[in-house]
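Comment thread on ticket #2218

A.B. wrote:
> Attaching the input chain for the structure job we discussed in standup.
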Amino acid sequence: MLRICKYLSRGEIGQLLIGLVFVVAQIWFDLKLPDYIADITKLVETRGSAMRDIWIAGGKMLLISLCSVICAVITGFVAARVGASFSQRLRSLEFRQVESFGPAEMERFSTPSLITRSTNDITQIQMFVTMGLLLLVKAPIMAVWAVCKIAGKGVEWTTATGVAVVFLLVMVALIIHQVVPKFRSMQRLTDNLNQVARENLTGLRVVRAYNAENYQEAKYAKANKELTDTYLFNNRMMAVMMPTMNTVMNGLMLAIYWIGAYLINAAGLMDKLTLFSNMVVFSSYSVQVIMSFLMMSMVFVLLPRADVSAQRLLEVLGTRPSVTDGRRDAGDPRLTGTIEFAHVDFAYPGSREPMLQDISFTAQPGQTVAFIGATGSGKSSLVNLVPRFYDATKGRVLVDGVDVRDYELGALRDKIGYVPQQSVLFSGTVATNIGYGTPTRDDGGIRAAASIAQADAFIRQMEGGYDAAIAQGGANVSGGQKQRLSIARAVQRSPEILVFDDSFSALDFKTDRAVRDALHAMRHHATTLIVAQRIGTIMDADRIVVLDAGRIVGQGTHHELLESCPIYREIAESQLNADELAA
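C.D. wrote:
> Ran it. Output below, let me know if you need it in another format.
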């Protein structure tokens, strides 16, 4: 938990120090009260004492109590302010860190776990900073101070207090030993519950189509029960703490009065008054000691879970992305748009076998290079090396004559318009999705990009046109419409390089052809890489690269490959008739 405190700002540390000053002041006022109680007791016991003196002592006691309340209010305000600003910073830091993650890091943590860490875990840390951090300071100071005040007031009373304190320490240690492992598992089980719920909501149509509601309910109920049982176990263990504290406190008070009665009964007349006054003071201070341990018990409730949450958050913040920035912000201007793969091998993290082996080809500026092959042959893996979603394990990928690992990531990706295999839309409007990532809205550029992607017609039919609402994930548009909007988003950037990762699969043949013709008309502006399964999509490409089991088995134009590459010819014959092959 201490390691997470390094993210506190100087202002927050200053506010905490101010809060600690008021905590110490509150402790002083609280521990001053028994002295005034003792004074009032002596005045009451002394014959001839003026009522005025008693009222003055009582007024001082009320003033001290009021000052203690004011200090408590200020301390609570400062702690709440620091807790809120600290949690805000942690959320921002985690979000920024997650944005730098590549696919490898996302697979390591998983989306549901990252959501839990940015919400539930940070909430646990905030609760500890707001309540536990000051209690962690206040409780030991108050306990030590109170013990010093009662030292020498009576061996018997001191022994009784020591026994009570030792009992409480043993009990708290046993409870913490039991619940800390459960707190760790609670966060993991929360991740699991989040994952099951998210999976069900995302795939709701499939669940309904297969009448799998009962299966999903059973799956959710199992995850929910595991979390609930663990939570109940922790609550039961913690529930033992408070009544035990009250029992020990009341038992200690009873022991003090019992011992005091015995001592007073055995003492002389003058000693009786002194012993009675000491007993009143000792009972007040002993309550402060027990209250200190009561506060520490609250810390022990908050600290284990906050500590687990802090470790989970630090795990995210301390993860170094596998893809890091280089120093170049531009390539060779004479080679603008050139892409070269030089003997590239690639293996996914943790994989024993390489996905790609000895990949070499060059895409000249303005050319269209297409990739085709069986499922799992490495087509998507290959094009993902260009925007550096992964880095090659051997060889070099060059863009504009510069190794992509030498580029600043922002500078490299500004050169690329990327359309992923699964089209992704964001909640907002059609215009904000097409113009995504651009600082200012360019209506002309957005409409031009939509026309190239053959999306303008259906956009105009939507209510609101380019200002029509798009639901999260594009749930209110069809698969083909999502692909066309994604293509428009890539084109709108006017990039040097366009990467289409099987981005025409949801389009009908007519629309596919129209989009390719529009792209062909602007291809002198951009080098285009296309991953496709359909021969019709790529047969007009300047170069077609055929992949099989991660290796290049053929390169050339459509007609050249029909003659020289059996795998390509086999794919083509399965999709085209004899007339189309001869065309």
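A.B. wrote:
> Thanks. Noting for the ticket: The chain has two domains: 2-317, 331-415+501-506+529-583.
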